[in-house]
Write a structure and sequence with these properties.
Layout: E1 6-8, H1 11-27, E2 34-39, H2 43-53, E3 63-77, E4 80-91, E5 109-117, H3 121-141, E6 149-159, H4 168-172, E7 176-183, E8 186-188, H5 196-205
Parallel strand pairs: 1-8, 2-3, 2-5, 5-6, 6-7
Antiparallel strand pairs: 3-4
Bound molecules: 1-O-pyrophosphono-5-O-phosphono-alpha-D-ribofuranose (PRP).
InterPro entries: PRTase-like (IPR029057), PRTase_dom (IPR000836)
GO biological process, one term: XMP salvage
Keywords: Glycosyltransferase, Transferase
């Protein structure tokens, strides 16, 4: 394992990436109505970016959490054992405590946030399920003419072949927002550090500060 390159990410670095992307969003006049953080790692950038998306006189953008876990699924394909990844929902949207403006995602600008796009399995699952849910509700509530706009923000996108895709229109219209594209190495996030001082020192040495 000694040849595995570790990339250390500091809290400062994360803070600045969130600020950078928030500025891009605001410059385009696309402040989201709601942020959906993918638990657990996505909740941290979700909370930080909310600060930078706040505008005077406007209410804080609500954050909803969805919980998605990847687990290794050993299956057989054409008689050959194959390891795949399956996504399990551990938590989903809950509009219960929000105002009447938030009975659904229909017609909203939605920002989905996660810390890393690795194989893309999680993000693919999240946006497909959310889009499906919006469509079903539009039919049910007869609100077919309202346009719902999804964006995705990740701190890091790993430059590697992906196992799943994101909607073409979202990618091509610049609504897939990446703090930084990184090589396919081991990303060490600060919330996992035993020794945060040493972690931050290493991140600084690598320029991730
Ligand atoms: O692009 P993918 O290959 O789908 O991987 C990315 C996902 O993996 C991590 O979640 P993890 O289940 O490890 O949990 P955590 O967020 O709680 O750390 C990460 O937070 C992403 O959600």
């Amino acid at each position: 394992m000694s040849d595995v390159q570790k990339i250390y990410i500091s809290y400062n670095n994360i803070h600045k990436l969130c600020q950078k992307i928030a500025n891009e969003i605001l410059e385009r006049n696309e402040r989201p109505d709601i942020i959906i953080g993918i638990s657990g790692g996505g909740l941290i950038p979700a909370r930080i970016i909310r600060t930078f998306l706040k505008q005077q006189g406007q209410k804080n953008i609500p954050i909803q959490a969805i919980g998605l876990s990847l687990y290794e699924d050993m299956g057989l394909e054409d008689g050959v054992e194959k390891i795949g990844k399956e996504v399990i929902r551990t938590q989903w949207l809950d509009f219960g405590a929000l105002s009447e403006h938030f009975d659904s995602l229909i017609g909203k600008k939605i920002l989905i946030v996660d810390e890393v796009d690795d194989t893309r399995t999680t993000l693919h699952y999240a946006i497909s399920e959310l889009q499906k849910e919006v469509k079903e509700q539009q039919v049910k509530l007869n609100r077919l003419d309202e346009e719902t706009a999804f964006s995705i923000f990740v701190l890091h996108n790993k430059d590697k072949p992906k196992r799943a895709e994101l909607p073409k229109d979202l990618m091509e219209s610049g609504h897939y927002l990446v703090g930084e594209t990184v090589p396919d190495e081991w990303l060490c996030y600060p919330w996992e550090a035993d020794d945060i001082e040493e972690h931050t020192r290493l991140a600084k040495l690598q320029g991730n500060d």
